[in-house]
Amino acid sequence: MLQRIDHVGIACRSLEAAIEKYTSVFGLSVTSLEVNEEQGVKEAMLSLQPGQAEGPAGPFGSYVQLLEPLSEDTPVGKFLARRGEGIHHIGYAVANVTDALAAIEAAGLVRLIDARPRHGSLGASIAFLHPADLGGVLTELVQPSAGSPGLPGSPGGPVAGAASD
Amino acid sequence: MLQRIDHVGIACRSLEAAIEKYTSVFGLSVTSLEVNEEQGVKEAMLSLQPGQAEGPAGPFGSYVQLLEPLSEDTPVGKFLARRGEGIHHIGYAVANVTDALAAIEAAGLVRLIDARPRHGSLGASIAFLHPADLGGVLTELVQPSAGSPGLPGSPGGPVAGAASD
User: Fold this and answer.
1) CATH number, position A136
2) CA of B37 to nearest chain A CA: how many angstroms apart?
3) Rounded to whole angstroms, how far apart are CA atoms B115 and B138?
């Protein structure tokens, strides 16, 4: 069901400072900047693989997702108040998020936060699973957009469709 | 420098229970079980991509790494006491961990926990970077073993060399 790690979601107090750190230390590039009002975050997706000639990554890359809360009264804002900056969640790529939710619900071992998919970064369809049933790990399922950025030559091509869907 | 997310390291109280959860909920398979005395953990690497015909992952997969401390007086044991179960660290693949450490040290923005590479899971060479300089994120650099497991046809082939090095 889980194909690969799509992204690691990192809660930070200053998106600007976090972007500066990850780009200057690791040479990552910013693929997208978005405000997601529904999730209460201002966020950046930093791509790990484009241009990495030595990288064996597949047509869909993996990302560092930096998350700054829009206010204290948001999930990420509450996370920062409770735990401080750090890893907030992990996102796994799935082929079809609706099918994955149905299979997980049928198995009955993990509660769903989202019974149906909602919109995520880069036009993806996403759903969260409850951390209490997964050893404290907030877990996200990600079905990348058909126009999701990938390596040159992959479906969608670099950055094409990043703001669509 | 960072090619992809190699693994997410998850601290758990019972490795057996965590493996049961991840295999039954997500259908993951256990690639390796190891005891790492130096790091004070009993651990399992669960592979995300082999056999996933629909998966676009590259020749090297990504993993869920489940970590049970060997005692309370270990880094993961102290993490569990302080924060409870949850995500402990994130590991990124690099082409050469020695070169990556040299570049990061030269930039002078992030302190190294390991000045030189040490042995990690699946025969990899690894090094940790200090979370205090990376927004609370314990960050691991991973240079997979030349014999690291991969997709059929990739260097090393499936599971070949997993216990070597």
Assistant:
1) 3.10.180.10
2) 23
3) 15
* Structural domain count, chain B: 1
Which sign does the torsion angle of CA B150, A120, A47, A60 carry? positive
Structure-derived torsion over alpha carbons of residues A162, A165, B3, B4, reported in degrees to the nearest 10: 160
CB contact under 8 A, B48 and A5: yes
Cα B51 from chain centroid? 20
pLDDT band at B109 (very low <50, low <70, confident <90, very high): very high
Contacts of B1 in chain A (CB under 8 A): 26-27
Domain that holds residue A122: 4-50+58-143
**A14: closest CA of chain B, how far (Å):** 10
Per CB-CB distance under 8 Å, the chain A contacts of B12 are 135
Which residue among A3, A95, A135 sits closest to B48, beta carbon to beta carbon?
A3
CB contact under 8 A, A48 and B10: no
In a domain, A42, yes or no: yes
Q: Give the side-chain half-sphere CA count within 13 A for B83.
A: 24
Note whether A136 contacts B48, CB cutoff 8 Å.
no
Cβ of A21 within 8 Å of Cβ of B134? The answer is yes
Instruction: Report d(CA A110, CA B158) in Å as an integer.
Output: 30
Residues in B touching A105 (Cβ below 8 Å): none
Give the model confidence (pLDDT) of B6-33 as tens digits. Answer: 999 999 999 999 999 999 999 998 999 9
Q: Is residue A148 included in any domain, yes or no?
A: no
Length of chain B: 165
The single residue listed with the structure tokens 């998850």 is: B10
Residue B122's pLDDT band (cuts 50, 70, 90):
confident
Domain assignment present for residue B152? The answer is: no
In a domain, A78, yes or no: yes
